[in-house]
Amino acid sequence: MNSTSKPPLLRVDGLRTVFALPDGREVAAVSDVSLALNAGETLGLVGESGSGKSVTALSILRLVMPPGRIAAGRIHFDGQDILALDEAALRTIRGRKIGFIFQEPMVALNPVYTIGQQIAETLAVHRIARGAAARAKAIQWLEAARVPDAARRATEYPHQLSGGLRQRAMIALALCAEPSLVIADEPTTALDVTVQAEILDLLRELRASLGLALLLITHDLGVVAEMADRVAVMYGGRIVEDGPVGDVFRTPAHPYTQGLLACLPGTSDGRRLTVIPGTVPSLGQFPAGCAFAPRCPHRLGACDVAPPATTSIGADRRVRCVLHESATGVTS
Amino acid sequence: MTPLLRVSHLVKEFGGSGWLRQRTTVRAVNDVSFDVRAGETFGLVGESGCGKTTTGRCILRLIEPTSGEVTFKGTNLATLNSHDLRLARRDLQIVFQDPYSSLNPRMRVGAIVEEPLIIHKIGNKSERATRVAELFTLVGLDPAHGSKFPHEFSGGQRQRIGLARALALNPSLIIADEPVSALDVSVQAQVVNLLQELQARLGLTYLFIAHDLRLVRQVCDRVAVMYRGRIVEVAPADELFLDPAHAYTQALLSAVPRVDPADRTVRVVFDHEAYQAEPLREISPGHLAALR
Questions:
Q1: From A49, which residue of chain B is nearest by alpha-carbon distance?
Q2: Which of A290-294's residues contact partners 24+ apart within 8 Å by CB, and which partners?
Q3: Is domain B5-39+50-84+209-289 in CATH 4.10.910.10, yes or no?
Q4: Residue in chain A nearest B214 by alpha carbon
């Protein structure tokens, strides 16, 4: 992992999250996912729809609802075994030690309470402040999230705010209990590009001033490149490649990562874009072997037999691909 | 050479009527003028609420414009009666953003593609079936799948079906409103390339409405940037991206997250409060900007 001797803030090992189908069969949305995040570090979790990135995030907070369940793996956060905790202990982690920012603030915010009430309520639940002190603190957090005219905005309801302001309110809500980790699931996907840039600036600023670790889930490689220290690329429920963001994007090792970077507009000469043929597999239809094999230009016989193991390929880099398996250093 | 499509002084106002309601009107499209030349891809970009989608719909009169002219092949669409408008629309089609909501879930996809032919009374049953099979092949789908329903297809395939429907009547202009933004990144490129192949093969002209600036640069010949209902800049795509003149265009371009650190530029922040509408003027040949 990392050269530091301190254990990582968050460590996920061999996570497998399954969903039961109506016929009783179970399909894995997430398989054998391992990742680690140090205090103050930002990890970008990249993937397309159905890749398992959001289910991974929900699993970390044990928010996977039936028919889904965590079938295997270990999740350690700040010295605690998340999967062994009872609900009461979990509540002291959710929102308090791990903050959550969702894609669509209109859904995550409660429409019948004002922004200020929602932040004050969170502060009261976590016994940080109550009453007038909580209300004052709520305004301070809105100011920290660069909500203009915060005292007035605190008295407004979510629908009265623009998309960008709503996302700022959501960030204030996620940070008000001063968590050490924030999980942000597509925090800027619903926003316009200039608003996105402002929100990313804000996240960068608050991350630095509060020393936050950030798990940033997104499909936008540009956002990851600008925000993250490390990146993990998911496909078909597995992490297919991870490593320092600059290294992975400069010399991608997995054919999927290579394809994803190559098909971005502006990367190929002329008008035609480089294409990854085929479509993203949907849940329950992942192939037996490597999930990317049907679309892969380097497909071999071995690809269809079993999912490839994770191979270490240099400093802090891993890939899950038979092309790299011949090299030494198989870690799982 | 006269342009294929000329939009002049297009205005669309919403609101304003209604009993007991304030008579406030919003100009969603405000004095928009541009030309689209035959065979080119003309991009209309801007952020949500800038009026780009409303402009596209006003051209087809899916939304009635408040004023202004839309001249297509020499005919002013804005004044056509409904019969003539329907005839004109054969030549002027639209592909929508959302491949999930723009296809009727209860119709078989073959019937969806055939519908425009029936409405316009083209061919008999067997001729139409041949044409539908031809269209499926054209957009890279298996004609044998015509009896399936939309939900049996992926997003990318559904967008191909929407495209086949738009092509059924051999249009010369297609308004593509965010045609790939609902698709997965790895699938977007397939649909973008298909649009370009079809353009080369069928001599199509595109009005390409999008918010993804990276994509617009890749596919468009010329680009117009919209802000608060107005066009603030029009230029050949490369020139717009390399040498944006309007402060809003500069802000928009500088906000795009870059994968390659070498591409990163200093962010330009646009002062929305200080914005003042100016008329477009030519600052170099073919490059117009709303600057004083």
A1: B184
A2: A290/A320, A290/A321, A290/A322, A291/A235, A291/A236, A291/A237, A291/A238, A292/A235, A292/A236, A292/A240, A292/A254, A292/A255, A292/A256
A3: no
A4: A265
A49 chain-B contacts, CB cut-off 8 A: 184
Nearest chain B Cα distance for residue A125, angstroms? 37
For the ranges A14-23, A239-248, A288-297, B21-30, the lowest mean pLDDT is seen at B21-30
- Per-chain mean pLDDT for chain A: 91
Q: What is the pLDDT of residue B204?
A: 97
Beta-strand runs (E) in A130-269: 181-185, 213-218, 230-235, 238-244
- For chain A, which domains are there? 10-97+179-325 (3.40.50.300)
- Give the C-alpha distances (Å, rounded to integers) separating B200 from A54, A226, B41, B190, B195: 40, 36, 11, 16, 9
- Cβ of B185 within 8 Å of Cβ of A225? The answer is no
Inter-chain CB proximity B251 and A264 less than 8 Å: no
Of B192, B218, B258, Cβ closest to residue A225: B258
Residue with tokens 């010399």: A251
pLDDT tens digits, one per residue of B42-84:
999 999 889 999 999 999 999 999 999 999 999 999 889 999 9
By Cβ distance, the residue of B154, B218, B261 closest to A265 is B218
Is a pLDDT exceeding 50 seen at residue A2? no
Query: A159 falls in which pLDDT band (50, 70, 90)?
Result: very high
State how far the alpha carbon of A22 is from the alpha carbons of A25, A27, A28, A237, in Å: 7, 11, 14, 20
Q: How many angstroms away from the CA of B155 is the closest CA of chain A?
A: 9
Q: Residues A9-42: pLDDT tens digits?
A: 999 999 999 999 888 889 999 999 999 999 999 9
SS3 content of chain A, % helix, strand, coil (to 5): 35, 20, 45
pLDDT tens string A271-284: 788 889 888 888 87
Residues in Cβ contact with B217 at an 8 Å cutoff, skipping those fewer than 6 apart: A265, A266, B223, B237, B238, B241
